[in-house]
Write a structure and sequence with these properties.
- It is an enzyme of class 5 (isomerase).
- The chain has 251 residues and is α/β, with parallel strands linked by helices.
- The chain has one domain: TIM Barrel (Alpha-Beta Barrel).
- 38% of the residues lie in helices and 16% in strands.
- It contains eleven helices and eight strands.
- β1, α1 and β2 form a beta-alpha-beta unit.
- α5 packs parallel to α7.
- It is globular.
- The model has no long low-confidence stretch (mean pLDDT 96).
């Protein structure tokens, strides 16, 4: 991680938790201690966004796990950036592989969602990553560059400070298989070079690119040592007290 990029950790709770379990998570996050030089954001189910925002310390960000591409309307089951902001949350995760592969969201739709969320004033964690068969077929770069382009084309130039890109190889999410630090760094380095070539050197240098895919308290420090890995997006491990070690991985 370059010193000018603040270490970033996202805890994506996915479709987990009730109030009792969430209270336990809030308790261990509040107790910490958390690295003051790291930025922490928790991704929360929609029905608990308000509850969590009210109970977590203000120093910890709260993210929705999805939102739609317009402000309001006849879109049953969706939430808008305006609603997320209204309850005090400031982040949204978009394009997670589960949205892409379970719910069929396209690159184009994810790009539109990213654009609307940024325009409405949210900060965005857009996710990209290849499936196992795509990696084995040598298509990792083709896939992740294509996903990234659909997002980057929709990012207003003045909103890059509100973007944290998450690279999550689909084959490593929840499987216990983690890309080695070297595998992850190789892709992160290529993503950053793609930003140099297709956006600007300034954006490439300042934009944080975080890694997701079976990040644990055991492997987080080795990942954090890599030059182009600026943090992590953590799933199941973010529900457990050991998550503190992941937040503090760059200390």
């Amino acid at each position: 991680m370059a010193p000018e990029r603040k270490f970033f950790v996202g805890g994506n709770w996915k479709m987990n938790g009730n109030k009792k379990e969430i209270d336990a998570i809030i308790s261990f996050l509040t107790a910490g201690p958390l690295d003051p030089n790291a930025e922490l954001v928790c991704g929360v189910s929609p029905c608990y966004l308000d509850y969590v925002r009210q109970k977590l310390p203000a120093s910890i960000g709260v993210a929705a796990q999805n939102c739609y591409k317009v402000a309001k309307g006849a879109f049953t089951g969706e939430i808008s950036p305006a609603m997320i902001k209204d309850i005090g949350a400031e982040w949204v995760i978009l394009g997670h592989s589960e949205r892409r592969n379970v719910f069929g969201e396209s690159d184009a739709l994810i790009g539109e969602k990213v654009n609307h969320a940024l325009t409405e004033g949210l900060k965005v964690i857009p996710c990209i990553g290849e499936k196992l068969e795509e990696r084995e077929a040598g298509k990792t770069e083709e896939v992740v560059f294509g996903q990234l382009k659909a997002i980057v084309d929709k990012i207003p130039q003045d909103k890059w400070d509100n973007v944290v890109i998450a690279y999550e190889p689909v084959w490593a999410i929840g499987t216990g298989k983690t890309a080695s630090p070297q595998q992850a760094q190789e892709v992160h380095g290529k993503l950053r070079q793609w930003l140099v070539d297709n956006v600007s050197a300034e954006v490439a240098q300042k934009t944080r690119i975080i890694y997701g895919g079976s990040v644990t308290a055991e492997n987080c420090r080795e990942l954090a040592k890599e030059a182009d890995i600026d943090g992590s997006l953590v799933g199941g491990a973010s529900l457990k007290p050991d998550f503190i070690h992941i937040v503090n991985a760059s200390q």
